Amino acid sequence: MDINITICLVLPPLFFALGWMSARLDIRYLMQEAAQLPRHYFDSLKAILAHRVDEAIFFLADVLKRQPDAQELQLALGELYRRQGRFQQAVFLHEQLQQSPRVSESLRKEAYLALARDYLSAGLWDRAEQALVVLVDDAQHGLEAERSLVELFENSGQWQRAIEHRRHWATRAMSAEGRVIAHYYCEQAVQAMSHRHWIESTQFLQSALTENTQCIRAQLLWASVLLEQDLLLEARKRCLELETYQPEAILLALPLLKRIDEALGTQEQSYLYLKNYYERHSIPALLVTLSEWACKYDAYPQGILKWIFEALAEYPSPSLLKAFVQLKLSLTNRLTENRDDATLVMHVLHNYSRRYEIYRCKTCGFVAHRHHWQCPACRVWEPFPMIPAILGTTH
Ligand SMILES: [Zn+2]
């Protein structure tokens, strides 16, 4: 037989056999490795997946006791301690790791970053800043350190420094952060407003609108500043301009608009404006305000009653139902005839509206009973819709 033909016949099965053996050896090696891992390691993983953090900590701490050199595990356990608010234990583990002569340079920096985040979570701003400033130029951990510095300045209310570091972070992360930076200016405006420094407040609000030309919060705050200075017409104009920003934003402006209208005597104009507004945008929550004014400023308030009736099918909110009952009783003069019954019904519906009309954070699901610009739980900016949802429904 030709030698070339022999090679062709023998080589493929040989390579196949070698591949099969190497795979078997790999599997055997992995099996041995897995067998060597303590059982509590897997228990801790299961507990983490089931969000039972206390249990995961118990198992991981046990594994670490048996394998004190498992550095990555030490880092992970420290993270879990921090999440549970057990800062002392977290700091102890991360500090130990960061100072150990046996860890790699990369892991040491990771432990230092974790330590900084422990200080940050514990509200030890100075220590956290000290550590983060050291890491901020690091190629591997710099971006995370910069992001943590932003969080630090946000949490400690150092808004100007938050702006600087948010800008640095945005450049490095190639992210557009104008929307968030506008809130930092708004925070400074709020501080200036609390001291009645109107010119300073206006400057901050101007900066906010330069960062984000559609910043609803800045526009609302500006209207408040104008109202405080008795510049009522300008304040009213700012409120009405919100329609060009986002139609739902008018809901946040209503308490302010009512105060301005009261001072100016422009309730009727606002009533007509909001009625047209509803026709343009169909925002059911707006009908609550319209129902309050309908009997006084509308020649045909039954029209509002009909709108509420139709809107209730789509948006069954207790405050809308309350508006319907109240307007219906007013139109039939039964509100004055059955005053006690009506008061009781209104009281019950009012309580229901407080309990069931909620704002839910789009990021973490936190439920609030009033609108916030920043989620109190996950600290994300603008995660709440402007129209309240109704608990237990898809609205
Ligand atoms: Zn949230």
Short overview:
With 395 residues, this protein is mainly α. The protein contains 20 helices and three strands. It is elongated and about 90 Å long.
Tell me the radius of gyration. Answer: 31 Å
Average pLDDT metric: 86
Summed up, the helix count is 20
Work out the strand percent. Answer: under 5%
Low-confidence stretches: none
| Apparent shape | elongated
- Each distinct ligand: zinc ion
Please trace the helix and strand order, writing H or E for each element: HHHHHHHHHHHHHHHHHHHHEEE
Number of strands: 3
How far do the termini sit from each other?
82 Å
Strand order of the largest sheet: 2-1-3
Mind describing the biggest β-sheet?
3 strands, antiparallel
SS content category:
mainly alpha
Helicity level: over 70%
Outline the structure in words.
It is a single chain. This protein is mainly alpha-helical. It is built from 20 helices and 3 strands. The protein has helices spanning 3-36, 39-49, 53-66, 71-83, 87-99, 105-122, 125-135, 142-155, 159-173, 178-194, 198-211, 216-228, 232-240, 250-264, 267-281, 286-297, 302-314, 318-331, 334-337, 339-356, and strands spanning 357-360, 367-368, 389-390. The protein has a 3-stranded antiparallel β-sheet. The longest helix is centred in the first third of the chain and has 34 residues, at 3-36. The N and C termini lie far apart (82 Å). It binds zinc ion (ZN). Residues 361, 363-364, 366, 375, 377-378, 380, 383 line the site of zinc ion (ZN).
